[in-house]
Amino acid sequence: MPHKRLEDLADGAERWPTVGGGGFRSEQWGDMEVGYTVVRHPLDCTELYRLGGLPGGVCPCPHYGFLFEGRMRARYPGSDWPDEVIEAGEAFFIPAGHVLLYEAPSRVFELNPAHALQSCMAAMERAARSGRLSGRS
User: Fold this and answer.
1) Whole-angstrom Cα distance, residue 3 to residue 6?
2) Which 3 state secondary structure label does DSSP give 130?
3) Residue 56 sits in a domain of what CATH number?
4) Is 93 among the domain residues?
5) Is residue 83 part of a domain?
């Protein structure tokens, strides 16, 4: 069975060179992606999802995780669900159909269904390569 320290997970740039480098580490273990994300500045993923061509401009991946440091917000466009705010020290579940906003520098551990995360990351990669992103943090 696989096991690693979070900082020893593979650099995400190996699979997603434009958006995976730096603070994103992820490996597929069975049908799950095990990930560790470090966001150094506030980041709104809205444009990445929209320009990447995700249906409805929302992430198709449910996220299960733990926020070590920082603050995240999940918005649910096109629904009547209120925003959810995840604070440091909290475990979380964010269902598919959201937009993520990292409101502060953050460190996050996540377990994600592999196919859904790979779809999301491929879209973000397309968006980053498009050259049409404005104001990206």
Assistant:
1) 9
2) helix
3) 2.60.120.10
4) yes
5) yes
| pLDDT in 10s for each residue of the chain, 137 residues | 799 999 999 998 888 887 777 789 999 999 999 999 999 999 999 998 999 999 999 999 999 999 999 999 999 999 999 999 999 999 999 999 999 999 999 999 999 999 999 999 999 888 888 877 765 44
Q: Whole-prediction pTM value?
A: 0.89
Query: In this structure, is residue 63 part of a structural domain?
Result: yes
Burial 52-73 (b: 16+ CB within 10 A, else e): bebeebbbbbbbebebeebbbb
CA–CA dist 89, 125 (Å, integer): 29
Phi, psi of 36 (to 5 degrees): -135, 120
| Domain assignment of residue 67, given as a range | 6-130
